[in-house]
Amino acid sequence: MAILDIVLHPHRALYTKSKPVEAFDDTLHELLDNMAETMYAANGVGLAANQINVLQRITVIDVGTEEEPQLLEIINPEIVERSGSITWEEGCLSFPQVYEKIKRANKVTVQYKDRHGDAQEVSGEELLAVALQHEIDHLDGICFVDRMGPMKRKLALKEFARVQAALKREALEAASKAEEATPEPQ
Ligand code: NI
Fold it and tell me: 12-148, what's its fold?
């Protein structure tokens, strides 16, 4: 298994609609394994294939706990039912350290294929419903900032830029410290 690189806003893959999976083969299984490992390594509750620059309708979700994981491998999903509404503070692995409240359906039912191509259905409320909608949005090339009003979206993107600049500064400082600490080669 391998941890994959997660692309960040404004990468094109995040704003491109994914294509349905047709082959439920070993390549898909390896991709699913790697996506789950990548999601867990990043402490995320969901990861869509767009976020690893793969434009296929695949997402992994786990809203369980470390002791009791509940991994869902969801391929070619369709939301077939939605009801109620809920406002949830969401984050996204492609927008590190940016959090914003988003209004979505409180309950959804999703039909999808599992890794073997068999039809499955899942219904979820609250966090699971939010995660399903957030990840299926990714497959349609929609990020959570696109679900915000224009004002909140602007603030969230400003926060994203601030965080990225701070992380870059930290990395540069760490690199220059490492350089200072390295003795001249003899
Ligand atoms: Ni996301």
Answer: Peptide Deformylase (3.90.45)
